[in-house]
Amino acid sequence: MKGIAHFISGVTVASFCPWAVETAQNGNPAYFILGAVAGILPDTVDFKFYRFFYSHDIQIEPHPDQLDPQPVADAVAKAVLLAAEGRRTTLKLATIKMDADNWRQYRVRIDPEAGEVRVQFGPIVSTGQVPQPDSLPEPRSVGVAKFNAPILQSCETTYTVDIFDGPSFAFQRNEAGEVDVDFLPWHRNWSHSLTVGLALAGMASIWTWKAGVVIAGAYMVHVIEDQMGHMGSNILFPFTKKRLPGFKMMHSGDAFPNFVGVWFCCLLIFWNIYMAVENPLYHFGFIRLMMYAMVIPFAVFGVLHQLLVRIDGSEPETQTTEWNI
User: Which has the least CB within 10 A, 28, 43, 155, 312?
Assistant: First the structure.
């Protein structure tokens, strides 16, 4: 899920702790802040720190004025072949920055059935990933590189490289002789572990056990939320070395699940604070709150969405980027 969803999830965990609500009522929101920080901490560690220290065996940096897809395809296929020979190989696909707010987009497809890598450069897009008109390169050639190795991919087969920092991969031969394609190997590894969350909670408990409970709950909720996606997490590091595959119920960048999650958390926070008020002006139950504020509005939205899809005739495509797994 997106950062805002993890952030509000951590606040929600804190709202379930009576001492957090009581302390906030007395003017000290420390436990709510602690929950928010712990809720977003795993991604903060990965994206703001750890990825900058992760090394790559092969780094691909296409030149903005020399859009030849073949060297890119050859480099990816080389990484696959090195892994098939028994050497774990890490690879980085750099983005192509055109100017302050524009990037050249390209796509890399690792096709296990065809045994080939296909690369093609696309349009220039803004930082908001909006394609610029008449920006497709001419000629728009396709780079193709063959490899003779069985591939096992836990995520998608096509990767879009456009804005900010490009994606990373780790290729490694497993016990079955297949080459595992590990997407963003520096992400959701040791930082997204229940054991790490418990360790942090244990250290915080030296100060007060109440802080430890908030940190443990917020951290674990983050890991559980991420497990709903495709990539999964290394849940029991250091006892496990690899990420447990996700349940593939959603992509982290999907707007609707993120919005529903954030809205549901807001309702839970409201309810927990409401329950702490001694003499509220208006009385209602939890079921009534959920029906009026969650079930009915989203049911209406679902019906309208289906009607619009039928009129339009197609579902919008989800673009897979390094931030959307």
Answer: 312
Q: What percent of the chain has pLDDT over 70?
A: 96
- CA-CA distance, 316 to 259, in Å (whole number)? 17
Distance (Å, rounded) from C-alpha 323 to C-alpha 325? 6
Pairing status of strand 96-99 against strand 102-111: antiparallel
Rounded Cα gap, residues 262 and 248, in angstroms:
19
Pairing of strands 151-153, 179-183: parallel
The structural domains of the chain, with segments of one domain joined by +, span 3-50+191-310, 56-183
Residue 306 confidence (pLDDT) above 50: yes
Q: How many CB atoms lie within 10 A of CB 161?
A: 25
Distance separating alpha carbons of residues 143 and 70, to the nearest angstrom: 4
156 dihedral zone (left: phi>0; alpha: psi -120 to 50; beta): beta
What pLDDT is recorded for position 105? Answer: 96
Could you tell me which of 107, 118, 117 has the C-alpha nearest to residue 162? 107
42 in Cβ contact with 5 (< 8 Å): no
Q: In what helix (H) or strand (E) does residue 143 lie, and over which residues does it extend?
A: strand 142-146
Helix/strand/coil percentages in the chain, nearest 5: 45, 20, 40
pTM for this one? 0.88
Residue range 240-246: average pLDDT? 89
**Judging by beta carbons within 10 Å of its beta carbon (0-12, 13-18, 19+), is residue 83 exposed, middle or buried?**
buried
